[in-house]
Amino acid sequence: MASSVNPTVRRRRLGQELRKLRELKGMTAEEVAERLLVSQSKISRLENGRRSISQRDVRDLCGVYGVEDHRIVDSLMQMAKESRQQGWWHAFGDIPYSVYIGLETDAASLRVYEASLVPGLLQTPNYASAVTEGSWPEATAADIERRVQVRMRRQERITEPENPLRLWAVIDESALRRIVGNREIMAEQMRQLVQFSLEPHITVQVLPYDVGAHPGMYGKFSILEFNDPQDASTVYLEGITSDLYLEKPNDVQTYSVMYEHLRMQALNAEHSRQFIDRVAAEWAAEA
């Protein structure tokens, strides 16, 4: 569940405030880096929230920007302190997409397009285990179990009784047809997908093969939106060795338009449910 202090979100907001101070000062990231004898990439990572920010970093930057109001400095220092706290996901060790988990934990809504797999938030434990084992050949049994536990913990965001995450998932037919694990696992996964799709805050649409070419052919992506207006909507693109987070309004708008086209080309929610139900029956009959 979302905590009152989400370190990822705190780091992100702090970075935004530091960027505003730099821009008010009329300085470039390169100029700041030269003043502090650090790399320009460090300043960029601090501002985009992808790097942990220490109170010393805040103090040094406020000095460069000439911030004399102690209340502002103290507030930023407190945010830096909170941003260094650990979220629930840190208990599971090194998770490569921990920044994304932090954002997902605090998000109000999530739109996701998946081309090859059932979205992680909708996966069964057996399916998640088979996905991890297949996509990470060198993983140990302990590695797989840890990843599955994280995925199941993430699902608490869509099962919260009070404030569940609003999830909209467009899933390519390939994800329903590709056998992951075995046929029994696939039948179980399809049945769970149907059950989740009945929840009022979850919408699942299937993009069938016969729609032909579509905007999602470039690959999967997610769009996260937040209740707090300070938190910009973010497009998440998952990579093999690194991930990409897009926050510029033009980028978010481009992906949002793409998503609307995918929604229009996909089967509606009821027809998608019927489609998945038929696929579940097919997997069960072959098991």
Could you explain how this protein is built, in words?
The structure is a single chain. This protein has 287 residues and is α/β, with parallel strands linked by helices. Helix 1 packs antiparallel against helix 5. The protein has 13 helices and six strands. The model has no long low-confidence stretch (mean pLDDT 89). Strands 3-2-1-4-5-6 form a six-stranded mixed β-sheet, with helices on both faces. InterPro entries: Cro/C1-type_HTH (IPR001387), DUF5753 (IPR043917), Lambda_DNA-bd_dom_sf (IPR010982). This is Helix-turn-helix transcriptional regulator.
Based on the model shown, name its key terms:
287 residues; 6 strands; elongated; Cro/C1-type_HTH
What topology does this entry show?
Layout: H1 7-25, H2 29-36, H3 40-47, H4 55-65, H5 70-83, H6 98-106, E1 109-114, H7 125-135, H8 141-154, H9 156-159, E2 166-172, H10 173-177, H11 183-197, E3 202-207, E4 221-225, E5 234-237, E6 244-246, H12 249-265, H13 269-286
Parallel strand pairs: 1-2, 2-3
Antiparallel strand pairs: 1-4, 4-5, 5-6
How much is the average pLDDT?
Answer: 89
Order of helices and strands: HHHHHHEHHHEHHEEEEHH
Strand order of the largest sheet: 3-2-1-4-5-6
Number of helices: 13
| Basic shape | elongated
Sheet of most strands: 6 strands, mixed
Rg of Cα set: 21 Å
Quickly give the structural class.
Answer: alpha/beta
Q: How widely separated are the two ends?
A: 36 Å
> Which regions have little confidence, pLDDT < 50, spanning 5+ residues?
none
Q: Report helical residue fraction.
A: 40-55%
Which range does the strand content fall in? 5-15%
Give the number of DSSP strands. 6
